[in-house]
C-alpha cells in the first residue's frame, strides 16, 4: 500500500514587502503552498485507502517574521491548510502532522547569505526613493547574522519527520527549535499583537 507523504519542498528569500515583485510572490506561493496542495490532492485517494500519514514542512516563521515575510506568508497558509485537512482526514484514519523547525539555515542551505548590493540593484526607482543603500545594508547584515546562527543539527528535523511517519500516536505538530525560538512563538501566540510588534521592532532596531 501507500503509507506516507512528506511535503518538504520549499524556497526562501529576503526582502521587505515592497522590494519583491508580484512574480516573486506568485513563485513562492506556487512552490511553498500550492506545490504541497497539488501533491497532497494527487495522493489523497491512496492515503485514504491505506489510512496513511501526511507530513508537511512548516516553520516557526509561520508565527512571526524578521525580514522574510514572503516565506512566513506561505508557511502560515500551509498551517491553515493542514488544520483543515487534519480534521477532515480523521474519519478516514489518515493522520496529518506538521513539522515546525526553527533556524536550520546552516543545515538546509535553503537561504544563502544575502547581498545588499544585489538587493539595491533590483529595487524599483520608487523603492530607491524611499530607502537608501545604508538601510538595505543594515537589513542585509541583520538577516545574515540570523542565518549564521542557524543550527547544523539537521538530523533533529529528520528525526521528527520519521516519528511523524512511524509513531503509533504521532503529534499534530512537532516544534523542533531552540528554547529562545520556542519562547518567541509562545509570546506571539499568547500575548497581544502590540507586545509582539514591540519585541520584533526592538530586535530589528538592533
Automatic annotation (TrEMBL):
A Pfam family per the record = adh_short
Source domain of life is: Eukaryota
The record's keywords, sorted A to Z, are: Membrane, Transmembrane, Transmembrane helix
List, alphabetically, the Gene3D superfamilies matched: NAD(P)-binding Rossmann-like Domain (3.40.50.720)
Q: Where are the transmembrane segments?
A: 54-71, 183-204
Task: Please tell me whether the keyword Transmembrane helix is annotated for this protein.
Answer: yes
**Protein name (record):** BDH protein
In its UniProt entry, the species of origin is given as Eurystomus gularis
